[in-house]
Amino acid sequence: MKTKFTANFELSPQLEEQIVAIAKRYHNEPHQLMKILLDIQKVTSNAIPQEVATVISRETGIPEAGIYGFITFYAMFSTNPRGKYVVRMCESAPCHVTGAKAVMDAIIRTLGIQPGQSSSDGQFTLEYCQCLGVCESSPAILVNEELYTNLTPGRAAALMKDYMRGDVK
Ligand code: FES
């Protein structure tokens, strides 16, 4: 399997040390890959670029192609650097019928970016995703690992403003 990681990522020695330390926290266990990647993403611009995957591969023994396959299978991972906060709007049918479009429009207006874009200050990336598993409380969004449900355009805009002000960590 050919890997298609993005180029242009600066892996400093300090960052590499952090990545090694995170893998060690999970005893470099291959079956802990999900937790390892989630923690590493927090220190690598919400992404697992190739240089990072190379370190993880070295520490865990998992082939790079296997790590790439894992990253591309799960929507919460990316090979491209993203904002500090990745906002994901569920676009599956139940959320769609309960008003996901109006919620997404409010988020777009508030953040000033379109789906697939990142804000110029590096704070936000906006994406669509598939069902988040909380259809009974739709529409729903995920901000990094935090789930928000029963959203209205007003609540979504207020929530984004909270993040913009730094009121939500
Ligand atoms: S369809 Fe949106 S959470 Fe299931």
Break the fold down into its secondary structure elements and pairings.
Layout: H1 13-25, H2 33-41, H3 50-60, H4 64-73, E1 85-90, H5 93-97, H6 100-111, E2 124-129, E3 141-143, E4 146-148, H7 153-165
Parallel strand pairs: 1-2
Antiparallel strand pairs: 1-3, 3-4
Helix pairs in contact: 1-3, 6-7
Residues 90, 92, 94-95, 131-132, 134-135, 138, 140 line the site of FE2/S2 (inorganic) cluster.
Quick description:
This protein has helices at 13-25, 33-41, 50-60, 64-73, 93-97, 100-111, 153-165; strands at residues 85-90, 124-129, 141-143, 146-148.
Polypeptide structure, described:
The protein has 169 residues and is α+β, with helices and mostly antiparallel strands. The protein folds into two domains: 13-73; 85-165, 3-Layer(aba) Sandwich (Glutaredoxin). It is 43% helix and 11% strand. It contains seven helices and four strands; from the N terminus they run ααααβααβββα. The chain has helices spanning 13-25, 33-41, 50-60, 64-73, 93-97, 100-111, 153-165; strands at residues 85-90, 124-129, 141-143, 146-148. A four-stranded mixed beta sheet has the order 2-1-3-4, with helices on one face. A hairpin with a 2-residue loop joins β3 and β4. α1 (13-25) crosses α3 and α6 (100-111) runs parallel beside α7. The longest helix has 13 residues, at 13-25. The N and C termini lie far apart (38 Å). FE2/S2 (inorganic) cluster is lined by residues 90, 92, 94-95, 131-132, 134-135, 138, 140.
